[in-house]
């Protein structure tokens, strides 16, 4: 479901119904620019993203081509956006009884040509990741020809492409929707992560 400048309650309703929501205007242009600036200032700390976990973790450029920087949830520079995410978590727990107790987040940067093949956000035989969030930090002049869309594969066999416009939040049930990142033609920035339960 596509929402414009919607309150958190509308995201909750969409998640309870269709299982996903695209919320445009989740952050203001000024807030997007501030986060993008923080991401750019920390670029030397990014590392190539991997797939798998533990002993099976490795870098596979044929599956995904992006770089990430994991976030400390107490980072004082990010307090304004972490509060928004904390409010969303509290409302998810209150209204949908999901038992979420933590949020893991990272900055993600896809270079020109970067992509991520179709996948599900839950590791095998684990259900700790419950709700996925992707918040785009791209500049306002982003065009559809720039690529980098998130393709969400829906229950009816169709798909929905999300334009990675700055300030847009995509949220969906992690165990339900496979998705991929279409190759970007310019650098694509986001803050991405998962609400988790133990």
From TrEMBL:
- Residue ranges of domain Fe2OG dioxygenase in the record: 99-197
| A Pfam cross-reference name | 2OG-FeII_Oxy_3
Annotated GO molecular function terms are: ferrous iron binding; L-ascorbic acid binding; peptidyl-proline dioxygenase activity
Coiled coil ranges (UniProt) are none
Key words of the record: Dioxygenase, Iron, Metal-binding, Oxidoreductase, Vitamin C
Q: Does the keyword Metal-binding apply?
A: yes
Enumerate the cofactors the protein uses. Answer: L-ascorbate
PROSITE patterns reported in the protein's UniProt record: FE2OG_OXY
Instruction: Say which domain of life the source belongs to.
Output: Bacteria
Q: Which Gene3D superfamilies match?
A: q2cbj1_9rhob like domain (2.60.120.620)
For this protein, the record's PANTHER family field holds: EGL NINE HOMOLOG-RELATED (PTHR12907), HIF PROLYL HYDROXYLASE, ISOFORM C (PTHR12907:SF26)
Protein name as catalogued? 2OG-Fe(II) oxygenase
């Amino acid at each position: 479901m596509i929402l414009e400048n919607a309150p958190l309650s509308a995201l909750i309703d969409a998640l309870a119904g269709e299982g996903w929501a695209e919320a445009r205007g989740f952050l203001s242009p000024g807030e997007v620019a501030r986060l993008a600036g923080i991401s750019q200032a920390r670029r030397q700390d990014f590392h190539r993203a991997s797939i798998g976990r533990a002993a099976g973790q490795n870098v596979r450029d044929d599956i995904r081509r992006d770089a990430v920087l994991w976030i400390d949830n107490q980072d004082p520079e990010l307090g304004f956006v972490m509060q928004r995410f904390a409010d969303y978590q509290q409302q998810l727990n209150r209204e949908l009884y999901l038992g979420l107790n933590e949020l893991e987040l990272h900055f993600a940067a896809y270079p020109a040509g970067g992509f991520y093949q179709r996948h599900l956000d839950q590791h095998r035989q684990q259900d700790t990741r419950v709700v996925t969030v992707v918040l785009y930090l791209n500049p306002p002049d982003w065009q559809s020809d720039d690529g980098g869309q998130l393709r969400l594969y829906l229950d009816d066999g169709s798909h929905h492409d999300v334009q990675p416009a700055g300030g847009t939040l995509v949220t969906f049930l992690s165990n339900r929707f496979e998705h991929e990142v279409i190759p970007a033609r310019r650098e694509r920035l986001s803050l991405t992560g998962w609400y988790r339960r133990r």
